[in-house]
Amino acid sequence: MRLALGVLIAMAASAAVVYNPAACSTHPCTVTITCAAATCTAGEATEVQTVLDDAAVTCSDTIELQAGRTWTGDFTFSRAISCSGNPLTIRTTAVSSLPALGSRINPGYLAYMPTLTGSGNSVFNISRGVGIVVRGVRFSPSGATTDGLRVYANSPTLSNLPDEIDLQQIIVRASQARNGFLMEARSILLRDSHIEAWSFNLNENKAIVQIGPGPLTARNNYLSGGSIHVLIGGESSVYRPECFIVGNTFFRPTSLLAANVLVKNGIETKDGTCQIANNWFDNVYQGGDQIGQVIAINSREGGPVYSATADTGTDLLTATGHTIVNNDRVFVSGTTIPAGLIGCTSALGGCFARDVSGSTLRLASTVGGVALDITTAGSGVLLTRQFATCGSNRVLVTGNYSSGSYSALTFLQSDPNVAHTCKSSG
After folding, report:
1. CA distance 351 to 386
2. Residue 100 buriedness (CB in 10 A; 0-12 / 13-18 / 19+)
3. Of 187 and 235, which is predicted with more confidence?
């Protein structure tokens, strides 16, 4: 018995990657990754990436990272697995020491969690794949331009985006980070997690940023971002995000007011279709550049730019591959702006898309108005898609509670010419 115990202790003190069964010859398979010391070496970090890249590790399998160990790198899962209903799981070896699902994780459980850290673009990015679960892992970004966790394909092609991603009881905790969690993906569930992401250099940062179509479901999380807790949509998104933000706690320490932190809003939607319900907002207050809003429904600052040709006979603009839809606000620029569209420049407020069909569209000076008459073709025509303020947001707000200064549930209407179509109650 003493000999067996000694062998067990020796194994625990050495680094290893153990496949059970060997080489994942059958499934489900478990791959356990350990380190010899609390801080893993560069070679041991490479082992993590090697397992993530291993095609033998697939649907129904589990990758376990040793609790209490820290790996440093820029880790990526980039395999196009298709595990709908039969996911690949990445989790802590101490999963039995975590609370049951449905209970929110907190930093008191860090001893039972592995940590991934780094200072690149992100600590960990899931860039492809359908059906992936991550449970009980801490992500600790250490750079002011680093995201803690990304589910991000950087692709305008919907079929390339990660899908059915289930993030359970994760922790993102950093005092220098760009974003806690950045997603450009299809279906994502973030639940029972704890995300704190601040930046002390007057850069805007967020706990969660959703620029993918979603839906993103954020349920029963603790969320704290230095500038904005949750940002839905924005100038870098080519999609109209869908989200369900339900039963979360939003908190910003009052100490950030005295620190070098750019404080803004609790939740900000820019071109989103969202339900925001039964959340608790604590300490949303006046920041460095504006009065903080608990929930701000706002317009985008900018959007994708498309090259276009103008037809004077049909008043059609043709822009191959555009994502403009009817009633989108569109700005016109270029070497020579076609006559009839001079009033659509950004300085004059832009115009509105109508009769969108495939790659073609017309522009009108008002939503649903008469198409503008293009009398000259122009050259080098550029169309910038700018989302209407609340006209393209569809947001149901109900049953939320807020406390602290400047914490009324308010909407930020930056364009008074666009009518609200939002609904709110509670």
Report:
1. 10
2. exposed
3. 187
